[in-house]
Write a structure and sequence with these properties.
The protein is of the alpha/beta class. It is 39% helix and 22% strand. The chain is elongated and about 55 Å long. The structure holds calcium ion (CA). The site of calcium ion has 5 residues, from loops.
């Protein structure tokens, strides 16, 4: 596939190009935000690998502008570990997945194939599971026709889960995405927030949407099979 790699760190850019070319992909490199944006708008790519910390325009802004211009090329964000809390922001502006540096090249290839396969299907502006909807643009959550008011942390938690609806998400992945790597999060903090979220999203509804997967984590899904 044709891959645009937007990465200012020369060594990293070189490694990505070499690795991708060894897998028979064709790689175009851009070393700053404006160049990346220009390449993405001028040429067709199957996927864009996008660093966040870039000279000129950062990766978030590149993704936001592409989506605003109706460019639906799949985007895989590469981010430094300490920027993980920003990942939700990256997904909100239209990126499809993210990977934290340093990463194993095999995982990078697998993620890239996966975002490219999902391809240029226009992303729904609203995320929905059963009658639960989350509108990232308005930061609005509804169950049926009832609006649900969430605190910022509850919102990040639900956002992270609903974007992975139907998949089991590990406790550590949730903690990283919602609180970040650097935060000391007590083991039971996540459970406490899930309880709060359930009390707002599921309490009083016959169909429960937030499910515990014992020993692993949580999942949001519409049916109650476990
Ligand atoms: Ca960078």
């Amino acid at each position: 596939m044709r891959v645009l790699t937007v990465e200012d760190e020369k060594r990293m850019a070189g490694l990505l190009k070499k690795g991708l070319e060894e897998e028979n992909h064709s790689v175009t490199l851009a070393h700053d935000g404006p160049a990346g944006l220009e390449m993405a708008e001028l040429y067709e790519f199957d996927a864009i690998v996008l660093d966040i910390m870039l000279p000129g325009i950062d990766g978030f802004e590149v993704a936001r502008r592409l989506r605003r211009n109706r460019n639906q090329t799949p985007i895989l964000i590469l981010t430094a570990r300490d920027a993980v809390p920003d990942v939700v922001k990256g997904l909100d502006v239209g990126a499809d997945d993210y990977l934290t540096k340093p990463f194993a090249f095999d995982e990078f290839l697998a993620r890239l194939r996966s975002v490219a396969r999902r391809g240029s299907v226009p992303r729904p502006t609203r995320l929905q599971v059963a009658d639960l909807t989350l509108d990232p643009a308005a930061r609005q959550v509804r169950r049926g026709d009832q609006e649900i008011h969430l605190t910022p942390t509850e919102y990040r938690l639900l956002d992270f889960l609903i974007r992975r609806a139907g998949r089991v998400v590990s406790r550590s992945a949730i903690v990283e995405a919602v609180w970040g790597f650097d935060q000391e999060v007590e083991e039971n903090t996540l459970d406490a927030f899930v309880r709060l979220l359930r009390s707002k999203v599921d309490l009083g509804f016959r169909q429960k949407l937030i499910h515990t997967v014992r020993g692993v984590g949580y999942t949001v899904r519409g049916n109650s099979k476990t």
